[in-house]
Amino acid sequence: MLELRDLHVYYGGIRALNGLSLRVNARELVALIGANGAGKSTTLKTISGLLRPRQGAILYQGQDITRRSTDRIVAAGLSHCPEGRRIFGSLTVQENLRLGAVQRKAGQELATDLEWILSLFPILKERLNQAGGTLSGGEQQMLAIGRALMSRTQLLLLDEPSLGLAPLMVEHIFGVIHTLKQQGKTILLVEQNVHQALDAADRVYVMETGQIMLEGTPEELRHNPQVEQSYLGK
């Protein structure tokens, strides 16, 4: 569904991605792990058109989207749930969710999808008319994921969904991620909670300094000495 080929991305004169290549197959959950500053969030921003590579290509469902605008990328079925949630605090929960469907035509399908998302996150149903900025951190993360899903995404980019959340809320968020995977969603997950990422993923890439250093199944990487020492605390 997604293929990145030899991406080189810069912030001014600083190189953030250095020949990065990876793939995500349909109905697969792929995790991207690595230390802070490795280039994980930069990778997602580049896929969604927020950053432009100086070199390389991004193929989505066989089409080159490297130079497409972000709105056209979203319309094609790719949605980005960013690090830090980035919800609209002055808008209600319902308004935030409906903004996720701005590329879609109004109709019964929107109502059906809204009900589906509220079934994933029942607490949001109780907060529909509440301003997004008054929600807890975990509830805001639920709202950010729900907003991304309202675009009827075919490929969901999830950036650090557990960041700053209490352990019980992390378990709940990853329970929803497992449900989405079981329902056939394709997901590229950036996550610093390596144990949760390995539990959720079909395949894993390990990034360092803008490059992919390791690739494998969760089981393979759990027994890799480099991963054990650097990320699993062994």
Instruction: Using the CA coordinates, give the radius of gyration.
Output: 17 Å
User: Structural class, judged by helices and strands?
Assistant: alpha/beta
Specify the number of helices.
10
Task: Find the count of extended strands (DSSP E, 2+ residues).
Answer: 10
- Multimeric organization: single chain
How far apart are the first and last residues' alpha carbons, in Å?
Answer: 35 Å
Q: What is the CATH homologous superfamily assignment of the domain at 2-80 and 151-230?
A: P-loop containing nucleotide triphosphate hydrolases
Task: Report the CATH topology name of the domain at 2-80 and 151-230.
Answer: Rossmann fold
Low-confidence stretches: none
CATH architecture of the domain at 2-80 and 151-230: 3-Layer(aba) Sandwich
Major sheet summary line = 6 strands, mixed
Q: What order do the SSEs take from the amino end to the carboxyl end, as H and E?
A: EEEHEEHEHHHHEHEHEEHH
- Sheet with most strands: strand arrangement: 6-7-8-3-9-10
Helix percentage? 25-40%
| The level-1 CATH class of the domain at 2-80 and 151-230 | Alpha Beta
Beta-strand content estimate: 25-35%
Mean pLDDT: 92
Shape: globular
